[in-house]
Amino acid sequence: MVGSLGLTPESLKASGRSSENVSLLILQGKIKRDPEGYETELQLIYKQFLTSVDLFKQQGALSFSSVVGIGSDPSVAKELGDRAMFLAHVTPFYPKQLAAFPAQLTDLLRTSCLAMPSGLRNHVAQALILLMNRKSLVIEDLLALFLDIQTLGDKNLRTLAFSHIVQTIRKMSATDPKHKSLQKIVISMLELEDEAKAKRALATLCALHKKKIWLGDRNERVAIAICEACFHTSPRIMISALRFLLDYENIDDDDDSDAESDDDEETKKISQVVINRQAVYKANNKGTSSSKKKKQAKLQRAVKSIKRKQRSSSENTTSAFSPLNHLNDAQKFAEKLFSRLQTIKGTGERAETRLMMIKVIARTIGLHKLHLLSFYSFLQNYAMPHVKDITQILAAAVQSCHDGVPSNAVEPLFKQIVNQFVHDRSRPEAIAVGLNVVREMCLRIHDLMTEELLQDLALYKKSHEKAISAAARSLIALFREINPSLLVKKDRGRPGATVVKPKQYGEANVFSNVPNVELLQESDHESGSDDDQDDDGDTELLSGDDVEQELIPEDCGSEDEAEEDDSDIDTSIGGDEDEEMNDSDGAETDSENEEMESEDDDGDASDSSGEDSGNEEKAKGTKRKIVDFDANLLSADTSLRALKRFAEAKNEKPSFDESDGILSNEDFRKIKELQAKKEAKIALARKGFKVPDSDQLSKKRVDPAKLEAHIRHKLTKEQRLELVKAGREDRGKYQARAAIKQKKTGGSSNKQKEHRKNMPLAAIRSKAGKSKRTKKMKNSLSGSQFRGRKAWK
């Protein structure tokens, strides 16, 4: 190109346009403004770049390669890096002239990365990233190269290449077909035996999975590859994969005290939406101060439990994104990992590694409800109080229990935990942990507990240690819900409570319809009855049939027909309405009904017991009896209008029974709100706790810290000193009084000045007289007292 224009480097140098006399940054700006005018300079710099590459390769062949790079001629590396960055900036303006430049730069980094100095490697990598951002290169060409250069030991280069890979894939569309090809490259590198390359590939997969980029059913091969990394030949890769799988489970559960840290507005909002208004009114305005405090505490507990349930149902926890959820064959994975655990037991592997493998196996068993019966007998070797990290092992044992495991397979482990931890000669901490583990295992497998053992463990509720008594009481509260017949009579709770039938092995609740759809059906019936209420909501409007029956004389129709009409309308329109009325309104109506029934009973005392229902219907009729005929007509008119509006609303919006059974998003939202209200009522009425579902237990992680609840561990000397210093923060440094007086600046105090003042004459005389009287009294008393004989007389 230069020769065709008649320009040579010598002629350019003679004209003063040589690239040596012009800065590359200045020339770069001029090329961007006028690409065609500086094509000759571009060709010259491109030739200089190729020459620098050849010279660098020759120097690299003559010297040793290292991480630091060659140091024979640093000017060659500097010129090469500068020209590479310059050409990367101007490549979009000369696509034909620099078509081969991206491939040449890629080959240079691939073949000579070990011989390059650290600065030159960073410059070439930045030039490749710039070319990729300018669409001159694609990520498929550089992904494997960037994974390779991360193994060189250059920290800056590793950070640069890793962040670029993650950010580039993050900017891609979720439906981009390139994801599959990129995943194939990274997974193939993970399967290599080279530890350094496999480690960088695993780090890339974990980062993209944790950032929710390669996540979900579309990218399940990534989750499977991470799980399969637990069987890598390199122990470091295996430990990294196990640690990543466990990091998803190390999210703390919501504490009971989290509601206190929330905003007051949120608490008020939830209480207004979910909690009954009458319960809030009673807690703040009715009763004594002590009863108000109890009601308010009960309301706060209900609000906290409702908030926890709403948060767990609405928000997806990080454990839901764990790669263990996407295993195609979870049983094979657990068995393979368990066999590896058994093989490395006697090879001198670290105890931390074995513990991580135990936790991953237990989490897989509980999450997918697998059957690995030999795992429970394996845990018996560790179920002893003196074993290191015993609470984490016991938490793994609890996590591996579910309702699909037969009780006879877990019973040996269960009995060993009871025998090793819960006895009179054991430490209080061990007894508390043992009782908590027993409770959690019985919560998942009900058949483990026997009547004799439960009554023996229930006696620990009288212990003076708070941790032991609390654990025993929680065990009693659990069996009040699942099988109260195993408890003694005084521990079963209220005698009027419903008897719970214990669940048999393999028994499951199968839904034949949409869960909680009956709440929607009840709300449809209640919405119709709302139109028949007064503005105050305390009295019901009379239906049209009722008023017509009252207007018709008794001779024209039978009372039985009228009573049937009344009962039909009451049950169809206002039947469900009475269930949601406030307690105070219900009490008023009940008292009125009792008064009316008592009047009828006085008048008709001779009636038989078979006519009680008829008397009640008559009592209702006398209650609705109207004397004024005009008022009767007005009420009939209004009730007929209400029935018309009700019929029109029913025709416009058919109920769930009349529809085809397909629910909309609005119906599901309404079901969720009704379920929240129902749970609020249950939370206000319940004392104790609700037994969670087996699916909820399998998804929830067992926290080892909760097995040690209420246990006070002995503090070390450093921790005690920290507490002492924390209590002295507001206190100043100790100084003696004398030292404070010596450091005092200024004049004398008022007290010192009082000592130096001349006393008035009257004060001097009174002081002298007082001293005389004191001396005289002392002398008079000394003569009458016997002081003993002196030794020298």
Automatic annotation (TrEMBL):
Location of the SDA1 N-terminal domain: 86-463
Domain named SDA1 C-terminal: residues: 746-791
InterPro entries: ARM-type_fold, Sda1, SDA1_C, SDA1_MD, SDA1_N
Stretches for region Disordered: 303-323, 522-626, 726-793
Biased composition (Basic residues): 767-778
Keywords from the UniProt entry: Nucleus, Protein transport, Ribosome biogenesis, Transport
Compositionally biased spans, kind Basic and acidic residues: 615-626
Acidic residues bias: start-end ranges: 529-614
Protein name: Protein SDA1
Protein source organism: Camelina sativa
Lineage of origin: Eukaryota, Viridiplantae, Streptophyta, Embryophyta, Tracheophyta
